[in-house]
Amino acid sequence: MLGWRLRTPAAAIAGIGLGIGLMTTVLVPRVEAQTPAQREQAARKAYEEHMRRMDEAEKAAAAKPATPPAATTPPPAAAAPPANPPAAPKVAAPATPAAGMSQADQDAATERGLEQYRRMMKEDPWSNPALLDADRGEALWAAKKGPRNVSLAETCDLGKGVGKVDGAFAELPRYFEDADRVMDAETRILWCMENFQGFDSTAFRKNPHPGGGQPVKDIGAIATFVSHKSSGMKLASKKDHEKEKEAIALGEALFFRRQGPFDFSCATCHAESGKRIRLQPLPFLSDPKEAKVVVGEWPAYRVSSTHVMTMQHRLLDCYWQMRLHRLDFGSDVSVALSAYLYDRARDGDIAAPGLKR
Ligand code: HEC
User: Which residue ranges form the domains of the chain, and what is each CATH number?
Assistant: First the structure.
């Protein structure tokens, strides 16, 4: 047990208009003066301080004239999606010089705030509460569980041999002969739980990811542990087997395929530098340079939802943003997308679990 108890209902952080409600919850240590509790509190304080600065930057920007002289500003050619409900997230174009000073000021203030926040997260890696989930994952990996009462440590091969965790994450996704398919870390862990421990995954598959404020589920915790055991290494997903190449190619096709009610592809939001939705930067994921920076940070503790978010969860969330059919956990499509992302990010540093806004 981690010793956490949810005390207050989630309180929405208003005022910075992220477009989605960023939820925060107060976590209270059950046992006083636990070091992890203090870490959690420090992370929370830092986040609240960040939000306060963001609010100030927004207010300062709003205090300036909202519309610069009309003659000089043609309305920006907005890439607006069809205006059908549910509303599509607005994709902001990179800095529009024509919009004049107030826009430039606002962009600069935003950028400064974001930079400060990134630095803060890097300064103290131990402030990352995801390490608690990595610990939980380690215990789960070693525990005898399921109808067959065996542990993953004595049965599950993540690609480097049964029970071997060090460096395994770095080479995922990869092809597994026993399953005759390519799998990422989470998909493989679930496969082992089903096939060796004898778990029935029906209920899990219906609801594989935590809601805001809920801890990451067991598989996510194990994935966090597994990723952490490759931290400091380079991303080196396998690309030898025919099926590995196929998965990457399918992921690439999916990344650029426009679909759904808004006719979005992943590339709509992730194939340009400097794009963002409000304050959220949208990394240029098909560009190895940017992919290398962010992909190795997953799974990551998401301060805005106060839990670890895994790559499967991240992808599901982006599918939701595209208003597509729910992305099934461990499906070929989900694995292909991650195979593509890990291929783009090849040789990037693994810094997992990361810490994300
Ligand atoms: C409507 C815009 C939109 C689309 C389309 C979209 N995403 Fe995202 N994506 C986002 C947003 C917003 C974030 C979160 C940024 C944040 O929280 O700071 C994000 C984050 C991500 C991240 C994490 C990046 C990081 O900073 O570490 C990955 C990976 C990702 N998306 C993959 C995809 C994939 C793959 C697709 C296509 C299936 C996709 N996205 C489609 C908006 C989008």
Answer: 4-73+85-126 (no CATH), 130-356 (1.10.760.10)
